[in-house]
Amino acid sequence: MPAIVLITGATGGFGSAFAKRFAALGSKLVLAGRDMNKLKGLAEEVGGTSYLVQFDVRDRAAVEAGLASLPPDFAEIDLLVNNAGLALGADPAFKSDITDWEVMVDTNDKGLAIVTGLVLPGMVARGRGHVINISSTAASYPYPGGHVYCASKAFVTQFSLALRADLIGTGVRVTSVEPGMVQTDFSLVRFKGDAERAAKVYADTVPLTADDVAEAVTWAATLPPHFNVNRVEIMPTTQGPGALGVHRT
Ligand code: NDP
Ligand code: 8X3
Fold first, then answer.
1. Could you read off the pLDDT of 119-160 as tens digits, one per residue?
2. Ligand nearest 63 Cα, by number?
3. Which terminus of the chain, N or C, has fewer Cβ atoms within 10 Å?
4. How far is the CA of 162 from the centre of ligand 1 (A)?
5. Could you read off the pLDDT of 33-51 as tens digits, one per residue?
6. Which Gene3D superfamilies match (predicted)?
7. Domains plus CATH for the chain?
């Protein structure tokens, strides 16, 4: 069981589920998010011992300040769960808002790399630690309207594997967790508050839950130190890869 767990995007669907699971296991939590009120509400709901840090993962100075503010009994992070992320839009690439592309790359890739880069040296110095990156099936299976989101998650998976290459012999583990369809606010965010469109994503099917993803994350995190899960890909039973697109005249 990791003693100290830092979760980014803790206020969202996955992040809150991870917080509950790790609190139940007895881990101390560093809950990171953009909204301090939501973080406080989560900490009360979760119980256990937590420290709250407010930062936007895209803002390197804010992440540095947040991590520097950790009291000594929360500073030695054993597990970093890089979870903060989002998709924006699902229109074809040639009709998309390039600002949405910037936000996705800045959050899912730049932000994830910043947090990792700041936490990793301490783990290496201590000779132990684990980074779990929340990627997606979108990293491996592109779909229409996925373009930059799919590519941003391919970065997460490949970054995770490349970190493994650098970390051999350090005692630090890295895992890429790659879920398919999971019902959270993800689609509401993607469709910019259009609740009807978001609900259609999950209609008449059985998606995974955030707690299902937490099952995969806690499994990888609680294995013995010699055991590294490189990648975990999970989907609902009701989902599978689609056919390649063909244009017919
Ligand atoms: P939610 O929208 O419920 O949660 C996303 C979380 O990320 C929120 O806490 C949000 O905070 C936070 N966040 C977004 N941008 C930033 C930022 N710039 N800085 C800090 N925090 C930020 O979605 P999920 O819980 O479903 O998504 C969590 C992760 O899982 C994402 O990386 C997503 O891409 C990935 N994923 C989701 C799947 C799904 O089907 N749901 C499947 C596969 C992967 P705030 O409330 O402040 O916006
Ligand atoms: C979220 C899953 O299929 O909407 O990463 O891209 S999907």
1. 999 999 999 999 999 999 999 999 999 999 999 999 999 999
2. 1
3. C
4. 23
5. 999 999 999 999 999 899 9
6. NAD(P)-binding Rossmann-like Domain (3.40.50.720)
7. 4-234 (3.40.50.720)
